[in-house]
Specification:
By secondary structure, the protein is an alpha/beta fold. It has helices at 5-12, 14-17, 26-30, 100-112, 129-138, 159-171, 249-271; strands spanning 39-46, 49-56, 75-81, 88-90, 97-99, 121-127, 178-180, 236-241. A hairpin with a 2-residue loop joins β1 (39-46) and β2 (49-56). The chain is globular.
Length: 272
C-alpha cells in the first residue's frame, strides 16, 4: 500500500497528538488537506485586497467542469508533483496506467493554450520539492528511465539538474513564453543546459529568468495528437519549487496577481 504524505506526517506526530489536551497547530491543520474532487470557491483578504480562489479537481472526470470557471480570471495556479516522474496512476476512464508527470504536462499544455487564458498569468508550482530532493538523493529511481529526453551528459541524481530539466520540459510546451525570477534555483545557467534538450526541440535555452526575456520553442514532438490551438501571444509564467504546506505560497500568488493586473491595465491604457 502506498503511504501518503499526510499519513507519514501524522505518524511522526503521534506522541504529540496523543496528549489529552492536544490542540492542532497550523501545520497540523494544513497537513489535513485532501484532494479536491469538485469545484470549491473561497474568498480571502490580503492587505485589504479581496482574492477569490476557485479550486478545481485535477482528476480526469473533473476536467470537463473546468470550462465553467474560465472567465474573468487574473491568474491560473497550476500545481505539478515534481517528485512524480517515476509514479503511475490508473486512468479509470481508459483503464490504462499513465505516468503522473507526463499527464501533468499534457494537461498543462492544453490549459496554457486555452483561448480564455491569453491575458492571465500562469503561476507554475513545482510542488513536493522536498520529496523530489529525497528521491533524487536516494539514488534509487532515476528520471532518465522514465523521461528519455533527459540529457545523456547530465547527472540524473543531481537535484539542480533534475529541477532544470523539469523547468525546460514545461517551458517547451508554450510558445512564446516569459519566465520571471521566482526562487533560488538558477535555471539552465550551466553549459550543460545551454544547448537544446534532446526531445523537446527548443529554439533557444532559458538563461537567467527575467521579465521581458523570451525564449520561443519549436513544436514539441511529444505533444498529443490533438493539441489545443496555439495562442501566438506573449504571456507571463512564474515558476516556483515549493512544498505542499509552504505558507509563503500566498505571497507568491498575490505578487504575481498584482503584476498581472498592472500589465493588463497598462495594456488597456495603450489601446485607449
Amino acid at each position: 500500500m502506498e503511504e501518503s504524505e499526510n499519513t507519514r506526517y501524522y505518524l511522526n506526530r503521534m506522541q504529540e497528538i496523543a496528549i489529552p489536551n492536544y490542540r492542532p497547530t497550523e501545520e497540523d491543520i494544513v497537513w489535513s488537506r485532501r484532494p479536491t474532487d469538485s469545484i470549491i470557491e473561497e474568498e480571502i483578504f490580503v492587505h485589504g485586497t479581496s482574492i477569490t480562489f476557485i479550486d478545481v479537481g485535477g482528476q480526469t472526470r473533473e476536467r470537463r467542469k473546468w470550462c465553467q470557471t474560465f472567465t474573468d480570471m487574473t491568474s491560473v495556479l497550476f500545481l505539478v508533483g515534481s517528485s512524480h516522474y517515476d509514479e503511475l496512476y490508473l486512468d479509470r476512464v481508459t483503464g490504462e496506467y499513465r505516468n503522473k508527470l507526463r499527464e501533468a504536462m499534457t494537461v498543462f499544455e492544453c490549459l496554457i493554450n486555452f483561448d480564455s487564458f491569453r491575458r492571465v498569468s500562469i503561476i507554475l508550482f513545482f510542488n513536493k520539492s522536498d520529496l523530489l530532493k529525497e528521491k533524487v538523493e536516494a539514488r534509487v529511481s532515476g528520471i532518465r528511465a522514465h523521461f528519455y529526453e533527459f540529457p545523456q551528459d547530465a547527472d540524473e541524481f543531481n537535484l539542480v539538474a533534475v529541477q532544470n530539466f523539469l523547468v525546460e520540459a514545461f517551458a517547451s510546451l508554450v510558445d512564446p513564453i516569459v519566465f520571471c525570477p521566482a526562487d533560488e534555483l538558477t535555471p539552465t545557467s550551466s553549459p550543460l543546459f545551454q544547448n537544446r534538450l534532446s526531445g523537446f526541440q527548443r529554439k533557444s535555452a532559458i538563461s537567467q529568468p527575467a521579465v521581458g526575456r523570451s525564449a520561443s520553442m519549436n513544436a514539441n514532438p511529444h505533444r498529443g495528437s490533438n493539441p489545443c490551438d496555439r495562442i501566438p501571444r506573449k504571456r507571463t509564467i512564474y515558476r516556483h519549487f515549493t512544498t505542499a504546506v509552504d505558507r509563503k505560497n500566498i505571497k507568491t500568488v498575490f505578487n504575481a496577481m498584482q503584476d498581472t493586473i498592472l500589465q493588463n491595465n497598462l495594456r488597456r491604457l495603450m489601446l485607449s
